[in-house]
Structures
1.
Amino acid sequence: MVDSNQKVIIDVSGVNQSFQIGDEKVDILKDLNFQLKDKTFNIIYGPSGSGKSTLLNILTGLQKPSTGKVLFAGKALYDLTPDQLAHFRANEIGIVYQQNFWVKSLNVIENVSMPLYFSGHSIAGSVKIATEALAQVGMASYAKKYPSVMSGGEQQRVAMARALVNNPLFVIADEPTGNLDSVNGDMIMSLLQKCQTELGRTIILVSHNMEYIPLADHLLHIEDGHIIETTSDTNITKIADELLDNMKKRVNHLSKAKHHA
């Protein structure tokens, strides 16, 4: 639940994103304005091609918008120098992707501690902090294993540890359950909730899974480059019920069409 007194931690104002393809200008994001509050659980959802990936790239400092401002904890993200932006991304944002990219020759503890080592920590110090991060997600006993021999769910839990290892303000998860079964997907969602409630992180989740919408404090529905915001428990519950009802109707319709084919 969002407290009205919680401070704004992310402020997006007047953001537009367009690309020039030949002689044609293609508008992807159109005048986005929204704020996310500190220590909240935020879900971005919408159909494929709606602009979710573009928005996520902008929020993570990978893609400067055509126009507009993005403030993270009061810092204008795209006013930073390249070195400042790289430092900000490495230290303030933890990212969990749908597909993980591991250094295959390194074991779990080495993969998780590597960002710390590159940030200037000693090897011993990096391993100590990485061990603590693994313990937070229940994966300390996997430290010496190699990611390539682990299940998808185990790898995503390790990815959560890697996202937390720099003690970031924000955890951004891009379809982190997309390749998982429901049991492992729910486990990852529980870890994200723990990051919010116990570790005090601001969560931004991009998901196609409508079942997770009731977990949010704040919804950002993006479609055709526009955003519709939803807050308050009552409104979010109502939207979740409507979405799930529409999904059931669509499945029933498709089932009937199949039997009549």
2.
Amino acid sequence: MQAEGADIKAVILDLDGVIYRGHTAIEGAAETTRWLASSGYDTYYFTNNSTKTRASYVELLRGYGIQTDEGHVITSASLTARYFAEDGQLPATALVVGEGGLAAELRAAGVRVVRRRGTRPVTHVVVGMDRRFTYRKLHEAQQAIRAGAQFIATNRDATYPVEGNVIPGGGSIVAAVATAAEREPLLIGKPSPRAGELVTRHAGVRPEQALIVGDRLETDIEMGRRAGLWTCLVLTGISTREQAEALPPESRPHWILPSIADLPELLMRLRRPAGGPG
């Protein structure tokens, strides 16, 4: 793993398991974000959770003592909306299996959102976290995909960290739809390298100038590695140090920290560039 020398200009922070767990703030998270701002780092917040709008996350973070704006919040829902707007997918009618944040982001991008199939053809089926998932929703999504709609997954996180436990994540719902439809989805969120490319483009930096800090090896760290970013695993969420060290060297995070509170000390060591991520 790399030790020193990264020229980091943008820091991309995951939320669940990094800033908070469930409804409980991670100790030192707010202080670290203030240190990043005062030290000249451009800080972004990137979550695979598609249930809320970016505006909702701005308010949520404010409740944890963190000041930001919509331009510095990235969700798998907002990335999915960008996919429709920037990849020639409009006009589109999307059957959405997900919550209000996903539907709102898609509508803002010009997508016609429906919850049930009607007389007009459905061009896409978009699936994310849905805490009111039912057999009817599964059947509607299955039939639309089998009729030719493109199947899109905001993320495939199997679990979601809460206080002292984990609960089923959006990936469990995606898996149900994929099984019923006998199709695999286009993945938009982490660990898709496309997500890393979109984030660094949005931040206006080269991949080797960005650091992603996350708690999951299979999403945050894998995306960062695949997209050429620097990567840091914190141990306040899902993945463990033992799991990280069991990976091949090229798949391991560049750094492992107990929590986000330890990030300033790491960054203070990394003042001069010494090549890109290895």
3.
Amino acid sequence: MLNSAQVRSHFPALAANPDAIFFDNPGGTQVVQEVIQRMQHYYHYCNANHGGAFRTSQQSDAVVEEARQAMADFLNAARPEEIIFGQNMTSLTLHISRSLARTLQPGDELVVTRLDHDANIAPWLLIAEDRGCHIRWVDFHPEDCTLDMEEMERQITPRTKIVAVGYASNAVGTINDVQRVVQLAHSVGALCFIDAVQYAPHKAIDVQTLDCDFLACSAYKFYGPHIGILYGKYEHLERLTAYKVRPADNNPPHKFETGTQSFESIAGVLGVMDYLSWLGTTFGADLAHPGHFSGRSLALKQGMAVIEAYEVGINQTLLAGLRSVPGLHVWGITDPERLHQRVPTFSFTLQNWSPRAIAVALAKENIYVWDGNYYALAVMERLGLEEHGGMLRVGLAHQNTREEIDIMVAVLQKLVK
């Protein structure tokens, strides 16, 4: 079982801000000390550009390739060359979408959902406009904010070329059946692109089991530095044309890593993997896990299993607390028996209070939350909330505690009184 005191000791920001309650995790988590140590080490000993004949450049390249292998272990990619680093998920998606656009013809169809972050909608709208393609939208059920899978089946047709879907909603926490979506896409010869930014901090990902074609996530959403990661099947990365400068390496993954990368941030990704491995070996040895993993891959899967097991409990505590506040409406799955179908990202509205006013009131009590649409524009428009300021979002992670939840709930109860 996870020991909160031990876990929290790995987060320097918690000690530096002892009065703060960080419930802003979906926008970006605090980093662990292992990240800072890896980045400091890089600056001290390896700081150089890529591809040089000299020692620090070679050491820098070695750090990048080690981090690439670590991310391959984290996602269970078949090979490290399937891992691309970039500024963030949005930039990586826009970049790869331009390469995918070259494969499209007028009249081809692209499927997007109204439950997604706009970073997994706008890139596909843009290339559809450029190439004369049609966009087909998949709706969600407003009553529990779950994806309409029957409509997904109807919208995927023989003309479909790309299906874009989120693994978990950054607005309402819903976990989607992405494996089924991948199967539906592949049944008509289409590619499937998964936005796993909101899912990755909470549960293990196995891209080989999913059989997805592309999957994107962001390290700063799971205790790391500001950097994005894109997984792509090697066969796709090899055949796609990359938009890059002419002298650059034309082999995956380097052909998609344009310009000079943030090598220190890539070093920080190794720190995340160090931490998650520690979490797994320290607290996860007794948890069930697939038998075919070993070494770091096993430790990472155990680490994510520890996080998932702990978050089941704080999910229940937060939901019960929010439902005790008069006039508060939680959007999304609220059935205690279905909490395994969501991540601990809860958004709500409160009668007679704007989301911004609630955020300001909580901030005065050193409780950090987000309000607005968090770039889930389609969600807010579908629910009729965009013109009213969106929702108030409370996003938990495994370093949060039940005591912190109780403090926030008490403040909310005072507000309504």
